[in-house]
Structure formats: structure tokens, C-alpha cells
Design a protein that fits this description.
heterodimer, A: mainly alpha, Cytochrome p450, 3-stranded antiparallel β-sheet, B: Alpha-Beta Plaits, two-stranded antiparallel sheet, binds protoporphyrin IX containing FE, binds iron/sulfur cluster
């Protein structure tokens, strides 16, 4: 996910932070490798912090504040949900991208009333029932990835060899991409979500490739619909009207930007956790039934996703007056560590019973793909633990974490200790 | 024990359904409703409490008779 409207970030990026309450930096590598202590400090001292970095923003750290802000629709608007604005070097190409593709990605970038019909369009693709039908495919995929890992081992990268391989192929399968093209498609998607973060030209290049590819799929299905998401979107209507090809391609593209690096980050974080906590690893090997609560707990503790809102009218939160145009970072990850809400908030408790976490957001923008994401995590972890006898992260300090909008391990050398 | 889901609050997180499929059902948009008119069978009270305590929207409540 990234902001697509060109704007000028603050030039202080890269300077050390002296006071997180007035100068936080969500791209700081130390923050992204362990944000908990910083949030804890802010929660006590300055629960809604402010920073001029990255275009300027407010950042809440308490659960109740984040909840209240998420519900302040549309005064806090979703029209620009990107946390990090593109760099000045990217501007020119982004203007071209917006010209070709538009700047909107409803429902994620929409407020009421446009939000609901678009959300209703995609929800049935990810209902618990629909998600069950994607299980066998996902399980087979995870097993074949583990085959490759075992072959490659004992040293592998838990992020690039496993976590990043699963979600793009699951989405490809749901959209209806032939399995023969899945490897190619995965590379295009990773091109957008990885290299494309820093290089707008690469991003635009792959976006065009994917657009043309989706367009071909639509043409193929015009006469012979199949049992896949593209065919279903071609049947669907909003207010009695069929969707244009442009809209169908936009919806599929949203699934790519919202459903892939988010999910690979949570699978990667879960592997990081178990690969650095021998006690928890042992416990899960002994009690695989714990996965049900453990997955919710890992979603809470390692919540990968922050979103942004734009203030449309003056509004007050916790005594702070926000002005039209201000950006607010929906800090779901920090809310999930609030000790007012969670006992032992800074600890991973694998069998936590009460866990009202909001890793998937809260309110009308609740993640449309949450059932799918949970299923992918569940299968990714169960298959991994089933097939690999023991494992560890080689140098936890050397793991590289992405930050900004989506936090998760991007480089994570691991050792397979028996398969 | 009787429970109900407030359809205006429910946003379809489906936590209730995954914790207690015996007590809840969800439609294709993820919106939950109670089974059996909200009546919680004997022995299922803990599951009902668990669902209530995990709903991020505070949408599930106990009905006072
Ligand atoms: C663990 C993985 C995931 C996490 C943590 C996550 C998190 C989130 C969050 C926090 C939001 C709320 C946005 C907001 O408040 O502005 C969101 C929205 C959304 N997510 Fe996810 N997501 C994940 C996986 C997925 C998947 C697999 C899909 C689909 C294939 C998906 C599709 C969407 C869509 C379409 C929205 C927009 C919903 C709306 O605006 O109403 N996400 N996600
Ligand atoms: S957990 Fe709450 S919000 Fe989610 S489906 Fe159940 S009642 Fe609705």
C-alpha cells in the first residue's frame, strides 16, 4: 500500500530523532525493529504525538484514541490512506501513473456513500465460506514451497523464500490466473511492492504489465466465464450497472496492494517470533491446537498495518485540535499494545483468551480480507511446523524490517535444524 | 443465557463465528447473527463469553430477561 498523490516529504528524514513526541520517524530502522518501548513512552507522556517528518502527521498510541478516530468518518477521511508520501524524485512518474490509473482505490480510499457498494462487491470473495474453498490450494502451495526450502536448506530466508511466496499466489489463484503464469505474476507483484516502493518507474512498468494481463483475462472470459473472481466481478453490478473494465482492473489491483505485503508481513513476523523464542517454539510443537489463539496474539503483537486519514473539518481528540488537511496515522499496531486494554501487553501470550485486537482495523474500513489472511497464516504456520522439525532465526539483530505503512521482516536468514 | 448481535455495530470481523460457530452464523458480507434466537445451550456459556470479549466492535451483548 502506498500513497499515490504526489506531495513533498520533509527533508529531515534520516536525521536522528531527539524527541519521539514531537519528531517521530515511522521509517526509522530502530523504531521498526522494536517499536514497543517508543509507543509505551508516548502513551504515558504524549498519547497523540506529532511530527513534521514525511509530510507531517499526528500519531495516536492509545487503543481508545485509535478506535475513536477510526469511527470519526468522514471527518477523518480515507481519501489519502498512504502513510508515507512519495519522494520528490517519484513525483513526475506518479503524475503519469495517476493519469493512467486514477488516484482512487475504493473502498480503501473511499468515504461514505461510495465506500459501501465497493466493499459489498469484494466481501463475498472473502467470506468464511468462500475462504474455505481456497484452503486446499493454499495447503498444497505451502507444501510445495516447503519442498523447495528443504531442498535449498539448511540456510534459507524465511521472508523471501517462504512468507513472500505464499500470498501473491493465493491472490493469483482467487483472481483466476492460470497456475502456469503464477511465478511470473508473483515477480510482477513483488516488483510493485518491493522495488516499486523506491523506484516509481519500476512500479509503473509492472502496473502496466498487470493491467494488460488483467485486460486479456477479461476478454477471455467475456464469452466463457469461469469460476473465479474476475468472472464474478464481470457479473456484478453497482446500483444496477455493470462495472467497466477499468473498475474491474482497479478492484483486482486493490487486492494486490492490500492483500499481499500485509499478509506476507504477518507470516514473516510469526516465523520471526518462533524463530527467536525457543520456549514458544517448543510449546507450539507440543500443542498445535494453540495456533488458534496464537495467530490472533501474533496479529496483535506484530500488527503490520498502519493507515492514514486526512482531516476534513476541525476536530478535537484528547484535547488536541486538528485542522483540515492534517494527516493522522491510524496506529493500529500501537493500540494493540495498550496496557489499559491488554494484560501483559508487551508480552506474547500464546493462549491469550481475551484479545480484542484491531490489527485489521475497526469500523467501516475493517479489512475485507481478514478471513483470508487468517487462513493463510494458519496454513503457512501449520505446514511449516509439520514439515520442519526445528528452526531458528540466525541473527535476530540482522533481520531487516520494512516500515511506514506495512511492518514486517524483509530479509530474515534462518537455519533449518531438521526436516 | 441469551445473546444478541447489534447489526448496526457489527462490521464482520467474524471473530465470534470462528470462536463459537455453534452460536453464530455470518452472511456473505461477514455480518453476524445469533443462531437459535440467541439462546445459548447449557454448557456453552464460556464460548459465548469468549465471543463477547473478542468482538472488536463491542457488537455482542447479553440480553437481560
Ligand atoms: C494479515 C494481513 C492483513 C492485515 C494486517 C490487514 C490490515 C488491514 C487494515 C488495518 C485495514 C483497514 C484500513 C483502514 O482502516 O483504513 C485493511 C483494509 C483492507 N484490507 Fe486488509 N489486511 C490484511 C490482509 C488483507 C488481505 C489478504 C486482503 C484481500 C485479499 C485485504 C484487503 C483489504 C481491503 C480491500 C481493505 C479495505 C477495506 C475498506 O476500506 O473497507 N487485506 N486491511
Ligand atoms: S466479532 Fe463482532 S463485529 Fe465481528 S462478526 Fe462477530 S459480532 Fe460482528
Amino acid at each position: 500500500m502506498s500513497d499515490r498523490k504526489p506531495s513533498i516529504p520533509n527533508s529531515r528524514e534520516g536525521c536522528p530523532v531527539h524527541d519521539w513526541a514531537t519528531d517521530y520517524d515511522v521509517m526509522d530502522p530502530i523504531y521498526n525493529s522494536d517499536p514497543g518501548p517508543i509507543w509505551q513512552d508516548l502513551r504515558e507522556r504524549c498519547p497523540i504525538a506529532h511530527s513534521e517528518r514525511w509530510g507531517g502527521s499526528w500519531m495516536p498510541t492509545r487503543y481508545e484514541d485509535v478506535r475513536e478516530m477510526a469511527r470519526a468518518v468522514p471527518t477523518l477521511s480515507s481519501r489519502a490512506p498512504g502513510v508515507i508520501p512519495p519522494s520528490p524524485e517519484m513525483r513526475e512518474i506518479l503524475i503519469q501513473e495517476v493519469k493512467e490509473f486514477g488516484a482512487e482505490l475504493p473502498p480503501i480510499s473511499a468515504d461514505p456513500p461510495l465506500h459501501k457498494p465497493f466493499k459489498q462487491l469484494i466481501l463475498p470473495l472473502f467470506s468464511p465460506k468462500a475462504v474455505d474453498t481456497y484452503r486446499p490450494f493454499t495447503e498444497q502451495l505451502a507444501n510445495s514451497l516447503i519442498d523447495q526450502i528443504i531442498q535449498k536448506g539448511p540456510e534459507v530466508d524465511g521472508a523471501t523464500d517462504y512468507a513472500q511466496q505464499l500470498p501473491p499466489r493465493v491472490i493469483a489463484h482467487i483472481i483466476g490466473i492460470d497456475e502456469a503464469r503464477a511465478d511470473e505474476f508473483t515477480e510482477w507483484v513483488r516488483g510493485i511492492l518491493e522495488q516499486g516502493q523506491a523506484d516509481a518507474e519500476i512500479r509503473l512498468k509492472y502496473r502496466r504489465i498487470i493491467r494488460d494481463f488483467f485486460q486479456e483475462m477479461i476478454i477471455e472470459r467475456r464469452n466463457t466465464p469461469r469460476d473465479d473472481a474476475i468472472s464474478r466481478l464481470m457479473e456484478a453490478e453497482i446500483e444496477g450497472e455493470k462495472l467497466s473494465d477499468y473498475t474491474i482492473i482497479g478492484v483486482c489491483f486493490l487486492l494486490l496492494v492490500a492483500g499481499i505485503d500485509t499478509t506476507w508481513s504477518s507470516i514473516g513476523s510469526a516465523l520471526f517470533h518462533f524463530g527467536t523464542n525457543p520456549e514458544h517454539r517448543k510449546r507450539i510443537y507440543a500443542e498445535p491446537n494453540l495456533f488458534t489463539t496464537a495467530i490472533e496474539e501474533l496479529l496483535r503483537f506484530y500488527s503490520p498495518v498502519k493507515m492514514a486519514r486526512r482531516v476534513l473539518e476541525p476536530i478535537k481528540f484528547g484535547g488536541i485540535e486538528m485542522q483540515p488537511g492534517d494527516k493522522v496515522i491510524m496506529n493500529f499496531p500501537a493500540a494493540n499494545r495498550d496496557p489499559q486494554i491488554f494484560d501483559r501487553a508487551e508480552e506474547v501470550v500464546l493462549d491469550r483468551k481475551q484479545n480484542r485486537h484491531i490489527a485489521f482495523g475497526v469500523g467501516i474500513h475493517r479489512c475485507a480480507g481478514s478471513n483470508l489472511a487468517r487462513m493463510e497464516m494458519d496454513i503457512a504456520l501449520r505446514v511449516w511446523f509439520n514439515r520442519i522439525k526445528d528452526f531458528e532465526v540466525i541473527q535476530p539483530k540482522n533481520v531487516i524490517w520494512s516500515g511506514g505503512q506495512v511492518r514486517g521482516p524483509r530479509v530474515m536468514p534462518m537455519k533449518i535444524l531438521g526436516a | 443465557m441469551r445473546i444478541c448481535v447489534d447489526p448496526d455495530k457489527c462490521e464482520g470481523h467474524n471473530r465470534c463465528f470462528s470462536l463459537a460457530p455453534e452460536l453464530f452464523e455470518v452472511d456473505e458480507f461477514g455480518i453476524a447473527s445469533t443462531k437459535n434466537n440467541g439462546e445459548v445451550p447449557k454448557g456453552m456459556e464460556d464460548k459465548a463469553d469468549l465471543a463477547i470479549a473478542n468482538c472488536p466492535e463491542f457488537a455482542i451483548s447479553i440480553l437481560e430477561d
